[in-house]
Amino acid sequence: MCLLAKLFALLMDERLREQTSLNNRQLGFRKGVGTREAIAALAGLVASSKARKLPLLAAFVDFSKAFDKVPRVEGEASPAEALSESFRRASEPPKPSAEKCIYILLKGAKPTSQGVSEMASGPDGYGMAWLSLAAIKKAFEELAEAVEEGRLEYLTTLNLRNSGLDEERLQLLSSAAFAADRGFSLETLILGGATFRKKETFFKLVRRVTMPRLKVLCLGNSVLSPTALKGLAEGLLEGWTMYLECLDLEGVCLESPKDEDDEEKVTREESIGALAGALKDFYVFNLKTFKMGPYLQDKGMESVLSALNSDDAPQRLQNVHLNLLFCGMDEDRAKQCLHASLQLSSLRSLDVKMGVTHAVSFLQGLMNSSKTPPWESLSLTVEEEALFQLASKGVIDFTLFATEILRAIADALDAGCLACLRKLSLCYMEFLPTSSPKVALFLDSLSTAKLPHLRDLEFSLIDNGFDGYLSALGRGVKKGNFPNLKALHLRSVPVWKEGMTGFFGNLMDSENGLPCLEKVEFNNTGAPEGMEVFVEALLAGKMPNLSEICVIHDYLGNEDGLMMMQGLGEAVKGGALCRNCTSKG
After folding, report:
1. How deeply is 394 buried, as exposed, middle or buried, from its count of CB atoms within 10 A (0-12, 13-18, 19+)?
2. What is the residue range of 268's domain?
3. Is residue 137 part of a domain?
4. Are 164 and 115 members of one domain?
5. Are 387 and 401 in contact (CB under 8 A)?
6. DSSP letter at 352?
7. Which carries the bigger pLDDT value, residue 151 or residue 161?
8. Considering only CA atoms, which of 135, 142, 199 is closest in space to residue 176?
9. Does residue 315 form part of some domain?
10. Which residues of 337-371 are buried (b: 16+ CB within 10 A; e: fewer)?
C-alpha cells in the first residue's frame, strides 16, 4: 500500500508539473526546499540585525503569483488582499517597516528550534548564510540582466551598501551598463561597506558611456587599496563625471593587499596625490561635497590642502570633510598645513590628531585668525605617546607640555573658538595636580564654556590625579553646558570617589541632566569607589538614554566592586536603565 501511495504521488507530481507553469525561483516551488527553512532563516536574520543594530530591508517577490492562484472563497478576501489588510492594520505610521512586514509574515509560521538546529548542523552551516549568499548572487545576476536589457533605464538611485558586493559582481554590473541599449540614468550610487582592490573597478564602472548622469558616488566605510583609489582618480581625470556633485569617501580605510604585485603596487601617498590632482574645476566642475575619510598625513595632506586652496579648485565646492594626522610631522610643514586648513573656506568638518606642540600652534592660529573658520564640526585629539614614554623614564618633565596644551585649550574656550567642538580627546598626558595655580584657569574654562555640539569626551592614560578635572566637568554639566554629550570615556585615568562624586553629584543637581548620554566607560580607574552616586543619578533619571556601561578593573571582586554591582542591580530593578542597555566588565 505504501509503495502504491508513493507511485501515485509521483504520477500526480509529474502531471501537475506538466499542467502548471511554476517559476522555479519561487522558494515554495523549488524541489527539496520548503518554506520552513526560509522562515527560520528570516527569523535568524531579524534577530541578528536587531542584535547588531543594523538596518534591515526585505523584499518578497511572488514570481508565480501564488497568492492570485489560490481559489477565492466567496465573501472572503483573497490571500493577497488579506495580507495587504494586515499590513494596513498593523502599520503605524501607514507605511510598515521591513521588520513589521517580516513579523506579520512569520507570526503564524512558528519555526521550531528543531528545524533551525537541523539547518545549523548542515554541511553549509547556518541556513541564513547560504540563503543570503544565494540570494545576493542571484540578485546581482538579475540586476545586471535588467540593466543590459534596458529595463532599468530610468533607475536613479542604487543602494548596494552592505549587500555582499565584491569586485566580480561590480564588474558584472559595469559590463551590463556598458552594453545597455538605452543607457543608464543612475544619479546616486552607494557602494559602502565593500572591499575594492583593483584599479579597473571604478575606472570601468563610472564612465560617461555607462553612467553619464551620476551625481553622487558614496564609498563610505569601504576598504580600498591605494591602487583602487588611484583608479578612481584616473577616472576623474578622464572626465567621465560631468555631473558629479558628491564624492563621499567618509570612513574609507586605505589598505594594501598582502599579495599585490610589486609592479602594480601604489603607495598610500601616491594614490592620495593622484586624487588631489583630479580635484580641479576642469574635471569636476559640478562638485559640491567632498568627504575624505582616510587620515591625511605628510605629502598626502599637503597635496589635498594645496589642491583645495588653489585657484583651480572646483568653484562650486561648498562642503568639505577632512581628517588630518599631524603626529610625528615636521614642525614647519605642520604649521603650513595648519594655516592652509584655516584658510579653506569650504571646510565644514575637521578631525585632527596631533601632538602637544602642534595642538598649541593649531589653537593659537585659530585664535589669531582674522576670520572665523566656517567649520560646523571639529574633532580634536591630542596624544603624545613618545614624550609620555620619555617622561615615564625620567628623561623629560612632561608636565610642562601638558600645562601648555591645557592653557591653550582654556584660551581657545574663553575666546569662543571651540564652539563647534564635537569631540575632545586627551591621551598620554601627565597633568599637574589641581592645587597648582597653573591649572586653575583651565578648570575654570572647562566648567564655564558652553559646548552645545560636544558629543564625545575622552581621557586616556592620564598620569597624576584627575578628580579635580572631572569635578570641573561636573560643574559644567550642572550649568547645562554639554546638552548633547553622548559618550564619556575614562581609560586608565586615576579617578576615585572624589571625582565621581564631583561629576555625578553635579549631574544630580542639574536641571536637565545628560539626556543624550548613551555610553560611559570606566576602564582601569578607581570608579567603583564612587559608584553609589552614579547609581543615584541613574535612578533619578538624569541619564535616560544610557545604553552601555563599561567598567573594567582588577579590583571588581573586592567590596567596592560588589557594592557597584549591587547598585547597578538596583538601577535595573528600578527601570532606570535603557531597555537595550549592555554592561561590560
Report:
1. exposed
2. 132-325
3. yes
4. no
5. yes
6. E
7. 161
8. 142
9. yes
10. bbebbbebebbbbbbbbbbbbbbbbbbebbeeeee
Q: Cα angle at 231 between 230 and 237, to 5 degrees? A: 90
**CATH code, domain with 249:** 3.80.10.10
Q: State which of 64, 95, 121 marks the end of a domain.
A: 121
- Tell me the pLDDT tens digit for each residue of 104-134: 444 433 444 444 444 444 444 333 433 444 4
Q: 540 Cβ partners below 8 Å, 6+ apart?
A: 508, 513
Contacts of 494 (CB under 8 A, 6+ apart): 462, 463, 464, 465, 466, 467, 525, 526
Q: Which grid coordinates belong to 470?
A: 572631572
Q: Which amino acid type is present at position 469?
A: Y
Task: Name the residue among 118, 206, 195, 125 with its Cα closest to residue 158.
Answer: 206
The reply to whether 381 falls in a domain is: no
Q: What is the 3-state secondary structure (H, E, C) of 386-421?
A: HHHHHHHCCCCCCHHHHHHHHHHHHHHHHCCCCCCE
Residue of 29, 21, 23, 34 lying closest to 131 (CA atoms)? 34
Cell readout for 194 is 565593500
- 71 and 138, same domain (yes or no): no
Same domain as 234, residue 171 = yes
Q: Which of 40, 186, 208 is nearest to 127 (CA)?
A: 40
Query: Are 89 and 206 part of one and the same domain?
Result: no
Helix (H) or strand (E) holding 39: helix 35-52
The domain boundary residue, chosen from 325, 353, 387: 325
Q: Which residue has the higher pLDDT, 366 or 524?
A: 366
Concatenate the DSSP letters of all residues of 453-502 into one string: T--EEEEEEEES--HHHHHHHHHHHHTT--TT--EEEEES----HHHHHH
Residues 203 and 99 in one domain: no
- Structural domains of the chain, count: 2
Q: What is the pLDDT of residue 421?
A: 93
Q: Where are the beta strands (DSSP E) in 195-257?
A: 195-196, 216-218, 223-224, 246-249, 253-254
Q: Examine the domain organization and report whether 186 and 249 are in the same domain.
A: yes
CA distance 127 to 70: 28
Edge to edge, the sheet with strand 195-196 lists 195-196, 223-224, 253-254
Q: Does one domain contain both 317 and 173?
A: yes
Answer for the pair 202, 231: CB distance below 8 angstroms, yes or no.
yes
* Stretch 448-462: mean pLDDT: 88
Instruction: Check whether residue 91 and residue 143 sit in a common domain.
Output: no
Nearby residues of 331 by Cβ (< 8 Å), 6 or more positions away: 357, 358, 361
What is the rounded CA–CA span in Å between residue 274 and residue 73? 67
pLDDT digits (tens, 9 = 90+) for 545-574: 888 888 776 555 566 667 767 777 777 776
Q: How far is the C-alpha of 205 from the C-alpha of 184, rounded, in Å? A: 12
What pLDDT does residue 15 have? 64
Between CA 46 and CA 151 the distance in angstroms is 31
- Residues paired with 195 in a beta bridge: 223
Cell matching residue 341: 586648513
Q: pLDDT, tens digit, for every residue of 183-222?
A: 567 888 888 888 888 887 777 776 666 777 889 999 988 8
Helix, strand, coil % in the chain, rounded to nearest 5? 45, 15, 40
Cβ atoms of 358 and 401 closer than 8 Å: no
Pairing of strands 289-292, 347-354: unpaired
Flag whether 56 is in a domain: yes
* pLDDT tens per residue, range 227-270: 989 988 988 887 666 789 999 999 888 888 776 665 567 889 99
